[in-house]
Amino acid sequence: MFLVLAAAAPISHAQETTNQALSEVVISASRAEQRRFDAPGAIDAVQVDPFRTASPLVNLSELMGGVAGLQIRDRQNFAQDLQLSVRGFGTRSTFGVRGVRILIDGIPATMPDGQGQAATASLMSAKRIELLRGPLAQLYGNAAGGVLQVFTKDPPVTPGKPDYSLSAGAGSDGQRHVAAGIAGGSETLGGLLDVSRYSTDGFRDHSAARREQLNAKVVAKPSADTTLTGIVNLFNQPLAEDPLGLTHAQFNQNPRQVIANALAFNTRKTIEQNQAGLVVEHKLSASDTLNARVYGGTRKVDQKLAFQANGVVNLDRTYGGVGASWTHAMQVNQLPVRWTVGVEADQLRETRKGFDNIAGNNGALRRNEDDTARNTDVFGQIDWTFTPDWQAIAGVRASRVRFGVDDRFNPAASSTSGSVQYRNTSPVVGLVWHAADTLNVYANLGTGFETPTLAESAYRPGGAPGPNFALKPSKSTQGEIGVKLRSGLHSFDAALFEARSKDEIVSSQSSGGRAIFQNADRTTRRGLEASWSANWAGGLDTRLAYTLLDARFKSPYAGAQGLVPVGNRLPGAPRHSLFADVQASITDSVRAGLEMRLESKTYVNDLNSDAAPGYAVFNARLSREFRFNGAKMLLYGRIDNLFDKTYAGSLIVNDTNARFFEAAPGRRLFVGVRSMF
To answer: Alpha-carbon distance 218 to 227, whole Å?
Structure first.
């Protein structure tokens, strides 16, 4: 597994002025430290200060909205997780995350089948969030249209003096959030523990939710050459009502409303996930480093869908994996060369049951099967500075992914059981020109693939029982050219990119929370990312991030709702996105900020027969830091959607009933207080 980190791009509003020095935190694509300015690709690092961030820190969308190339939307529907896409990869997702690989402290939050979960990341103890885009992401294997990594802060080295933290907040729509943490240790052994609870009545009718999280990290250094990091993450979401989508007419009439079927079938989801992992780093010598990981966990899901026949999905999953890599540093002609080789193996086993939905309760058993997904990957990468001004990168990853279904409900029906195997080799090459101390230019080219997930393969078109193993993996070729410029107080990044995909996995039908998928022949995604940030005298910071994305079908295909012609745009991918942020330090202890988010209209289906209108929304925040009885305190407040704009915050693409629209909240207030002592 590669830890590709840190490139320069706009820092989220979560990053306060006092922490700008942290922008030089770096780890290169081959695990060796380097300036993020020199990182050979489009990589963003958002530094997180959980104490000073003027936001409740419940969803990743609070922190990552200002990163170019990334669409991250809070559905206001905790039953379906965030809607996350990178350069147009992942827009088809009707629930969970597709096409983007997620890792938390080196432990995959994306399963071997390519389905990821963003909600399990604990932001109250995070220190950095990174996003890798473009060809280099292919070195992470299946479902790597982009790679999102969350890193937990390290325990403080304060022997006999642990740090304590408390946080509480409340806001519109019955929002309540409380959190507590403890951290401490020494040079050889330290740990931290954070717990949090969030609940909301929901902006829309029938959208209440409640979740609890625990995140623990232990770091042990038995010697100067060895570091052991243990991670435990517990996630419990006992309530997440699903209001489903609205038609355009319903959305215009009353964006808060819920359709009758959601109430009749009491659509909702419960989730319980527990996992633990161990990451080891050992220096074999001054030139050689060994990294290894082992992890495992369980996940239980119960979902009520908006129809009776087989309208309850019950999943009981166990998963785990191992991985190891070896990095060697050397010199050729007195210039550095680093190479890394490694292997990863992951698997999941789940029991999938389906029941009739009788007014929100389990009825007759309709489905009972054991599903498996396994992957085995080997990879290698070399980073060679062959002249003082030029650096070359090359890598390759060979992946094998296998799915299996054992139908226990109809054991005699051979057509409802079976297995399928996917193989792919993903090469990547890149070049960086260090044109000046303040200017880097880079180019990358690579190929990758994305398998359908078990959930996407679960239903066949036409309603026939058994898995849809006719789905093919999508394969893509990606290229990018980028520039990074640093000049005094200013930072500027830009990248041109193009991705050509074959056998794109698209949602052909989606109704009541269930989706059926098929392959389209050819698609392209091309565009421009640009970001600029400046830190002015007097404590004023400004940031801009713009994305131009032209994502289209390049060949016709017959979908469930009609023939999709050449040139139609991919749904869920706006052509223009703009983020702007201004933050000012009014005094040494008082900070204020104003941000704007703008999106152009977004098509809701492959036929491009309807679209969500474009919008611009403004959010304001204010915080004051002070001391009380020896404790460091922060009082903050924020108003999101300052001008009470009505707009669709997310979409359910290709919904069969034309219920595409998920309304974003109107004007919303949240206030909170944090303390550290």
So the answer is: 10
Distance CA 463, CA 447 (A): 34
How far is Cα 242 from Cα 495, in angstroms, rounded to an integer? Answer: 38
Is the separation of the CB atoms in 552 and 567 below 8 Å? Answer: yes
Asked if residues 312 and 368 have their Cβ atoms less than 8 Å apart, the reply is: no
Helix (H) or strand (E) holding 252: helix 248-253
- pLDDT averaged over 10-residue windows placed end to end, the chain, 677 residues: 32 36 43 65 90 95 93 88 90 81 90 87 92 90 86 87 95 98 94 97 96 97 96 96 96 96 96 96 96 96 94 96 96 93 96 96 95 96 94 95 94 86 95 94 95 88 82 95 93 96 86 81 96 93 97 90 92 96 96 97 95 97 95 97 95 91 96 96
The answer to whether 42 and 69 have CB atoms below 8 angstroms apart is yes
- Beta bridge partners, 219, equal 190, 229
What contacts 322, CB < 8 A, 6 or more positions away? 292, 293, 294, 344, 345
The model carries a pTM of 0.92
**In 208-235, which positions are buried (b, 16+ CB within 10 angstroms) versus exposed (e)?**
bbebebebbbbbebeeeeebebbbebbb
Following DSSP, what letter does each residue of 264-317 receive, concatenated?
A: HTT-EEEEEEEEEEEEEEEESSSSEEEEEEEEEEEEEEEEE-SSSTT-EEEEEE
How many CA atoms within 13 Å lie on the side-chain side of 654?
25
Q: Which two tokens stand for residue 250?
A: 């319903």
